[in-house]
């Protein structure tokens, strides 16, 4: 009897969740963002917008399911690896064909980027648990703001694109300057300052062993990243500009979804007070010797 009630309860929760998720069309997501942005913007004691909070992407399409004609049966679509590959291949080919989704590499570096993109399943530093670094780590999932510093924290949120974002955080001092002879590290050296209601974070000294995204976009020690955080109501606009004067012909401003992974500008919505990042797990290193080809999927 107990197992029957448990199964019935799970079915009810599943149907409720699926019904709610199914309603999140792109238009409805945009409407939710507009509604959240229209709310009053909280401010800290110093008058700046308060960025503190747990931030997440607006709800997406969610699970795929099939409902029977009589509405009594719901089947959750469970896809195996070949089916997932078949769905991923067109997206990869679309990204590979669209040069606007790539940084503006100088001609002499374009062949290297192409090779890395098509062999990423073997040579991506993330395959071997190397930290994603800035800007590949994307927008933070949690922010704590004080007058002298802003703390940016990152969690996986259980999504495939953020699979190995484990226990990463950044401390951004406000009003500081970049020092000299900085060590190159994956998250770089960050300083922050306010431009009106926007927090600007300037990042240099980023380890060139990291990639900009999951599509083989590489950089060198001259990489310069500028992140802008603007709170509007219950939304946080994250804008990123990427420059590498050695490799690029000009700045690059990717948007989330245009490349593989979390890289790019996006809008996030605040979660209710008291919620925090979901605990994640240690990175699981992939075994290069088990790779039999260069499949990206």
Keywords:
alpha+beta, 9-stranded antiparallel beta sheet, 11 strands
- Count of all domains: 1
Q: Largest beta sheet: what is the strand line-up?
A: 6-5-4-1-11-10-9-8-7
Termini separation comes to 44 Å
Derived structural class = alpha+beta
Give the number of DSSP strands: 11
Descriptive account of the structure:
Strands 6-5-4-1-11-10-9-8-7 form a 9-stranded antiparallel β-sheet. The chain has a two-stranded antiparallel ribbon with strand order 2-3. The chain has one domain (81-290). The protein has helices spanning 2-22, 26-37, 81-97, 107-118, 120-123, and strands at 53-56, 65-67, 74-76, 142-145, 149-154, 168-173, 189-195, 198-204, 224-232, 235-243, 266-270. Residues 1-23 and 157-165 have low confidence and may be disordered. The chain has 5 helices and 11 strands; from the N terminus they run ααβββαααββββββββ. It is α+β, with helices and mostly antiparallel strands. The N and C termini lie far apart (44 Å).
Write the layout of secondary structure elements.
Layout: H1 2-22, H2 26-37, E1 53-56, E2 65-67, E3 74-76, H3 81-97, H4 107-118, H5 120-123, E4 142-145, E5 149-154, E6 168-173, E7 189-195, E8 198-204, E9 224-232, E10 235-243, E11 266-270
Antiparallel strand pairs: 1-4, 1-11, 2-3, 4-5, 5-6, 7-8, 8-9, 9-10, 10-11
